[in-house]
Design goal:
Blueprint (H helix, E strand, L loop, with lengths): L1 H4 L3 H13 L2 H8 L3 H15 L4 E4 L2 E4 L1 H21 L11 E6 L2 H6 L1 H11 L3 E6 L3 H9 L5 E4 L8 E9 L1 E6 L11 H6 L1 E5 L8 H8 L5 E6 L2 H8 L5 E5 H4 L8 E4 L8 E8 L6 H13 L5
Helix pairs in contact: 2-3, 2-4, 2-5, 3-4
Length: 302
């Protein structure tokens, strides 16, 4: 117990944030403290452990070997203390809290309606703040603590970002049925000869469809690029345009009698739609509850 008497336990919380973020400013954001306060705490920690803990290497901050060795035992110790001191369980019906989500137009249509209905029914004190961003921006917002959960596809992500698969998806193509054969779809040559609609926040983004065509040495002509799936559907009817998108996106298009779905004439792998969060939120009871609700609301028919 002698070592415990020599250190303020709040410094261990700061150390945990610094080891996770490897960045003083982001650690301050995570702890809801000022940057000077965290810098002062880092100086105290360096003195206590007789080690710099964080050093600058190649233009960025990195952990020393001593700091790296502290990660697991510190997380285990703080987890044990947190469980010991927890006075109550998370009660969604009584909780007052605001969660920040970032999601695409697609998931806003598929997941958000059942999620809002569930929250209003079972947790009326929970508020949801929704934003939209590109995939890279979503990951950056998670790392910087600007959002709690991101919904999307995250094949490449930092180690600190955790993900959970929500459901499997596949791509389908959609066009005005008057421009398609009576049965079946289009050949690859016919497909590439037609103009296309691209759904993306950034018109010049290189998405899964472009990647698959690029691997074949091919490229499609993008006549219209926009971020709104509902508008994309509306503008296809009566034109020669083709839209290729996730199947659950087009599942809500039954009222559009002029349109028909068909299988793209080249291999497009299925993909997992995911929810992502930062490791710092992993053991937050409220955050765990939210992730469970999102998972349930992503089921077909939810």
């Amino acid at each position: 117990m002698d070592e415990l008497r020599r250190i303020d336990l709040n410094l261990l919380l700061t150390l945990h944030a610094l080891l996770a973020e490897k960045h003083v400013t982001r650690a301050a954001l995570r702890l809801h403290k000022s940057q000077p306060a965290v810098s002062h705490a880092l100086a105290q920690l360096r003195d206590h452990f007789d080690d710099p803990l964080l050093v600058r290497r190649e233009g960025r901050m990195a952990l020393t070997g001593r700091a790296q060795a502290l990660i697991d035992p510190l997380a285990e110790a703080l987890g044990t203390l947190n469980g010991l001191l927890s006075a109550r369980q998370f009660d969604p019906a009584a909780e007052r809290r605001r969660f920040r989500l970032t999601l695409s137009d697609y998931s806003s249509r598929i997941i958000l309606p059942p999620l809002v209905r569930y929250v209003r029914r079972h947790a009326p004190g929970i508020d949801l703040a929704i934003s939209q961003a590109s995939r890279d921006a979503m990951l950056a917002q998670l790392v910087d603590g600007e959002v709690d959960v991101a919904l999307g596809i995250f094949p490449d992500r930092p180690e600190t970002i955790h993900v959970q698969d929500l459901f499997s998806e596949e791509f389908v193509s959609l066009a005005d049925r008057a421009t398609l054969p009576a049965k079946g779809g289009l050949t690859l040559e016919q497909f590439l000869a037609r103009p296309h609609v691209k759904l993306a926040l950034r018109p010049d983004s290189y998405d899964e469809i472009e990647k698959a065509l690029g691997e074949l040495g091919l490229q499609r002509h993008i006549a219209v690029a926009l971020p709104h799936w509902s508008a994309a559907v509306e503008l296809i009817a009566g034109t020669d345009l083709i839209l290729t998108a996730a199947s659950r996106t087009t599942g809500a298009m039954q009222p559009h009698k002029a349109l028909r779905r068909f299988k793209p004439p080249f291999a497009l792998p299925s993909f997992s739609y995911q929810q992502a969060w930062h490791a710092r939120r992993e053991d937050d009871p409220g955050h765990r509850w939210l992730r469970g609700v999102i998972r349930a609301c992503s089921e077909p028919g939810a």
